[in-house]
Amino acid sequence: MRVIVAEDSALMREGLVRLLGDAGHEVLDGIGDGDALLVAVGEHRPDLVLVDVRMPPTHTDEGRRAALTIRREHPGTAVLVLSQYVERRLARELLDDDEGGVGYLLKDRVADVGDFLDAIARVAAGGTALDPEVVRRLLARTAPDPLATLTARERDVLAAMAEGFTNAAIAAHLHVSASAVEKHVNAVFDKLLLAPGEGYNRRVLAILRHLDP
User: Fold this and answer.
1) Distances from the Cα of 21 to the Cα of 17, 27, 31, 176, angstroms
2) What pLDDT is recorded for position 199?
3) First and final C-alpha spacing in the chain
4) In a designed cystine with 197, which of 102, 113, 125, 203 is the match (CB 3.0 to 4.6 A)?
């Protein structure tokens, strides 16, 4: 996989470059600001970009703007946001195009290198990888709350769907049968007035758009 790392912290950037290199990925560039990231993406056309939200010079939304520009101008490049903060608007905008190949993970909550590398692979392959806290923020609503109609198990299944799990993965994760998961998924769609899509990316994005327009 061909990757560009955009992170203003030199220690964090070099750590990610080494980690990805050791995992067999080709790191095309390590960048510390949003403008340089856009230039590098245009030049190298990577498979995936790892980008922080707040980067120089203002440390406000340079990474956010760069990520959205990449999604718009280079749709073949997957984008994985790796940030200390949940930028709810950015998460919603990244997911809004229904194309997949996006992720949003929180730095402080990445506890396992293997899981992190799996998330990168999933996003590069056109899937999604969302930190549960990002999902929680996206699903948070003021009254009336559509989630109030869901049972506890249906909430668990919905959260797993939004994290990008397939039905089989949800069954293993929750230690239930595949048929039980299918039943809960259908109940979620029925209660939230959502029709099932062709793959887990489509249904995740539909749920997020419906609950957080």
Assistant:
1) 6, 6, 15, 37
2) 44
3) 33
4) 203
Name the nearest CA neighbour of 167 among 129, 126, 200, 130: 200
**In this structure, are residues 20 and 14 in contact, taking their beta carbons and an 8 Å threshold?**
no
Say whether pLDDT at 97 is over 70: no
Helix ranges, 23-87 (H): 34-44, 62-73
Q: Which domains does the chain have, with CATH numbers?
A: 2-137 (3.40.50.2300), 141-211 (1.10.10.10)
**7 close to 32: Cβ distance less than 8 angstroms:** yes
The whole-angstrom distance between residue 2's C-alpha and the CA centroid of its chain comes to 18
Determine the Cα–Cα distance for residues 77 and 122; give it in Å rounded to an integer: 13
The string of pLDDT tens digits covering residues 135-179 is 777 766 544 566 677 788 988 888 887 777 889 999 998 999 999
Residues 49-58 have a mean pLDDT of 87
Residue at 202: amino acid letter:
R
**Long-range pairs for 135-139 at CB < 8 Å and ≥24 separation?**
135/159, 135/162, 135/163, 137/86, 137/88, 137/91, 138/88, 138/91, 138/92, 138/95, 138/162, 138/208, 138/211, 138/212, 139/208, 139/211, 139/212
For residues 171 and 181, the answer to whether their CB atoms sit within 8 Å is yes
